[in-house]
From TrEMBL:
Coiled coil: none annotated. Belongs to the type-I restriction system S methylase family. It comes from the Bacteria. Gene3D superfamilies: Bipartite methylase S protein, DNA methylase specificity domains. GO terms for biological process: DNA restriction-modification system. Transmembrane segments: none annotated. This is Type I restriction modification DNA specificity domain-containing protein. SUPFAM superfamilies: DNA methylase specificity domain. One of its GO terms (molecular function) is DNA binding.
Amino acid sequence: MKRTEPALRFEGFSETWQEKTLGEIAEIIAGGDVEKHKLVDTGNYPVLGNALTNDGIMGYYNDAYRIEAPAVTVTARGNGVGQAKARFVDFTPVGRLLVIKSSHNAYFLEQAINSYPIVVESSGIPQLTVPKLQKYKLLIPSLTEQEKIAEVLSAADELISLQSQKVAALKRHKQALMQQLFSTNGESVPRLRFDGFSEPWQLVLLKECAKVTTGNKDAQNKVEGGQYPFFVRSQTVEKIDSYTLDCEAILTSGDGAVGKHFHYIKGKFDFHQRVYCIYDFNTNISAKFMFYYFSEHFYERVMRLSAKNTVDSVRMNMITEMPIPLPSLAEQEKIAGVLSAADELISLHQQKLTTLKRHKQALMQRLFP
């Protein structure tokens, strides 16, 4: 039997929620044609074409036809179809956007719609129409209870937003640190050095620092719940019940998102035949230092060696012949230690962000029938 009341109610609310269609409680408006609106860099109203976009299309604004806030936008076609977003600033809807105008709480409607995804069946590009959205059913409490639910969930959203900003700030700080701590562009020393280090860095080739090889496994060799990490051509680490190497290593994709996926490991692991592995480091090399330098600069090197805007695959010599500015082992370890500490801090705050998102999700499951 379908529940008509949520598992969690605030004190003072006991009325049964009523099932309504959006057509009964709201006006559904289709976004207009982009060409009908003069798109300019500045203006009073953002031009929106996707429910999940907060800014104007490519930053465009206008002073023409607009929807007065509050309202809810729903993506009608393509990526994110059926996703809703409450709007509290007047805007102009265009393109693949539907707008819900209602006297009900906009944020409550956004959360309710996203809690029960709109199923869009299509043999081609998924598309949501005004008539279909009008028939969408949802359970509605009193306006007062809607506002109470919206208040609690929007507070959770604010916490999530603040934590997301903190994670982003920490990542920017680490990025700035790396730019300061590594010698680049032919410099003999980096811009930022720790006390006690003054010797110039030496430029060497990566092949002088470690060995490079590729794996001998395919994607189908992965084992769910396997014993060892299995590195494939993505940032996702799979599992496998075999291992080829037991050492400290750096791994990167040989094709696909070239120069975008990097892993560091110390222990037993296996890897795909199109994954490059840098291992067996010389005694004067910190593998962790090499990981940070390589992951920061390899993409730039690959693009510089390519005549195209994209690179289909990595050649062995792109790695082995890569110049590496190298300080003493002690300075390598100092730099690696600072960046590892930054990574740990980012990881802790990322975990907190994940926990906050799970908490909100659990709240939504109890606050909506």
